[in-house]
Design brief:
The complex is a heterodimer. By secondary structure, chain A is an all-alpha fold. Helices cover 77% and strands 0% of the residues of chain A. Chain A has helices at residues 3-33, 38-47, 51-62, 67-92, 97-104, 109-117, 121-151, 155-177, 184-201, 209-213, 226-232. Chain B has a domain at 1-33. In chain B, strands 1-2 form a two-stranded antiparallel sheet. Classes of the chains: A mainly alpha, B mainly alpha. The interface between A and B is large, with 105 and 79 residues. Chain B: The chain crosses the membrane at residues 6-24, 36-58, 70-103.
Chain lengths: 233, 105
């Protein structure tokens, strides 16, 4: 294993850690806007540690949604980590229950991308561990900064924060709808459908329920294509 | 919502998300790697994140309201299209929301 390849893996891991740190500040601020105290915001980053689910949970609570609707939207977004885990299991080959319990907490978009992109199993493991450790440390520190900072804001700053939260969701969504994304036309159709379902239901259902209900728009994706069936078989 | 209820939501949601991660490392791959399972999981984030964008921008309780949030979102979309970094996108959206708030109150 050459030193330069190891260095590149570590550089990518640390670069990602710094980038998600900015999202951590935004999450801490969004959690404060939703009525969570800074310790609850920090507990989410320590225990949940999966950004889109965390944003969804506080987003639904902030919109006046119930606990079950907030948890439901977080869990629906968390399902993709299950698929990541399946992809990572042969690369990480966790030996023993304790190691598996520990590694599981770091199974997220970024660590999966780092591990899958690495040229061999040893580097995949290194990328996963270095990325997981960096992102976990930075994400939790910046969550606390964002939560404490937002708690000190006045009314105009709260209006600013109200505009920041939807922009943060748009930034999470954007890479899935950008040119070059997998099955771009399908993703755009599903996204438009999800937004339409949510807005149409808003006057009729308790706050937050329309977000969970928007998952029916996935039906617009249609059946798996034949080549995907072959690839999976 | 009381602080105790919020703590319950945080802990239950976190435990559920952790178990979803652990399941991936623990169940046989064949259970998850079915074409329709991966297809649904691939597109769930698009549907949910778009719903969250729409609701966070326009919903106010059970009504729909056009305010500074929509202006902020439009500016954010423009910034994203121009490949601005995340922090710039959020700062511009926030500044727009604050500006509309100051101008309309």
């Amino acid at each position: 294993m050459s030193r330069s390849v190891r260095a590149a893996v570590l550089r990518d891991a640390i670069g990602l850690g710094v980038a998600v740190g900015l999202y951590g500040v935004a999450f801490g601020a969004a959690a404060d806007a939703a009525g969570l105290d800074p310790w609850q915001a920090l507990a989410m980053s320590l225990l949940m540690f999966t950004g889109a689910s965390q944003f969804a949970l506080v987003g639904v609570l902030g919109a006046g949604g119930s606990g079950p609707a907030a948890i439901g939207s977080a869990l629906l977004l968390g399902t993709r980590n299950t698929v990541y885990g399946v992809r990572l299991a042969p690369l990480l080959a966790p030996r023993g229950l304790l190691r598996r319990l520990g590694l599981a907490q770091w199974v997220i978009d970024e660590t999966t991308a780092l591990a899958v992109a690495a040229p061999d199993r040893g580097l995949a493991r290194l990328g996963f561990l270095a990325g997981g450790a960096t992102i976990y440390a930075v994400w939790n520190a910046t969550t606390l900064v964002g939560a404490l900072g937002a708690a000190a804001l006045g009314e105009t700053a709260q209006a600013a924060l109200d505009a920041v939260v939807p922009a943060a969701f748009l930034a999470l969504l954007w890479p899935r709808l950008r040119a070059g994304a997998e099955e771009l036309a399908v993703a755009r159709r599903v996204a438009l459908g999800g937004a339409a379902v949510a807005l149409a239901l808003t006057p009729f259902v308790p706050a937050g329920v329309q977000v969970v209900a928007a998952v029916v728009a996935v039906a617009l994706a249609g059946r798996p294509r034949p080549e995907q069936r072959e690839a999976a078989a | 919502m009381s602080s105790g209820t919020l703590w319950a939501v945080v802990v239950v949601g976190s435990l559920g998300c952790y178990l979803l991660k652990l399941a991936g490392l623990s169940v046989p791959a064949a259970w998850v790697e079915r074409p329709w399972v991966t297809r649904v999981v691939t597109f769930v984030p698009a549907a949910l994140l778009a719903a969250l964008v729409a609701v966070q921008t326009l919903a106010s309780g059970q009504g729909l309201v056009v305010d500074g949030r929509l202006a902020g979102l439009a500016v954010a979309a423009l910034a994203l299209a121009l490949r601005a970094p995340f922090i710039v996108v959020l700062t511009l959206a926030g500044a727009t929301g604050a500006l509309v708030h100051v101008l309309t109150t």
